[in-house]
Amino acid sequence: MATLDNLDKRILELLQTNARRSSEDIAECVGLSATAVQRRIKRLREQGVILGDVALVSAEAVGRRVTALIEIELVAGSREDLIDDFKRRMAAQPEVQQCYYVSGECDFFLVVTAEDLADYERLTRRLFFGVDNIRKFRTTFVLDPVKVGLQLPIR
C-alpha cells in the first residue's frame, strides 16, 4: 500500500472532483509548483493509487434508462474455477457496470444497465440462463438513483 501524505491526499481529492484540472490549478490549491504536482500524480499512477481517468456519462443520455441490482447465487459448493469463470464473464460484459464477489446470502452482486425491460430480459437470458453454475438470481430495479459516484473519502 502506498504511503500518502497530506499533499497527496489533497491532490487526489481535487482530481476526484475533476480529473481534467490542470497541474497549475492543483498547484495553486495545494501550495506546490506545477512540476511538483505532476511528479506526484505520476508517482500516484505508477503506485496504482490512481487507476485511470474516465468521463462520467449520463446513462439516460445514451439510452440506458434501466439500472438493476442483481443478486446471484451460485450452485452450492461451486468450484474455484467456476467462480473465476463467472468473474471473467461478468468483467467482459459492458452492461455490467459493477460486479462484486460477496459474502452473505448471495455470491455475487451486480449493477447493470439496460435500454428497457425487454433489453434487460435479453441480457439475463444471455448471461444467466443455461449456465449450470447459477442456482438463481434476484433483481431489484432502481427507481431513483439518489447518489451515484465513485469518489472515495480520503481524509
Short description:
With 155 residues, the protein is an alpha+beta fold.
Low-confidence stretches: none
Number of helices: 5
Number of strand elements: 4
SSE pattern, N- to C-terminal: HHHEHEEHE
Helix proportion range: 25-40%
Q: How much is the average pLDDT?
A: 94
N- to C-terminal separation? 16 Å
Briefly note the structural class of the backbone: alpha+beta
What does this structure look like?
This protein has 155 residues and is α+β, with helices and mostly antiparallel strands. The chain has 2 domains: 41 residues, Orthogonal Bundle (Arc Repressor Mutant, subunit A); 82 residues, Lrp/AsnC effector binding domain/regulation of amino acid metabolism (RAM) domain (Alpha-Beta Plaits, 2-Layer Sandwich). Helices cover 37% and strands 19% of the residues. The chain is built from 5 helices and 4 strands. A 4-stranded antiparallel β-sheet has the order 2-3-1-4. Helix 2 packs across helix 3. It is elongated. The chain starts with 5 loop residues before the first helix and ends in a 14-residue tail after the last strand. The mean pLDDT is 94.
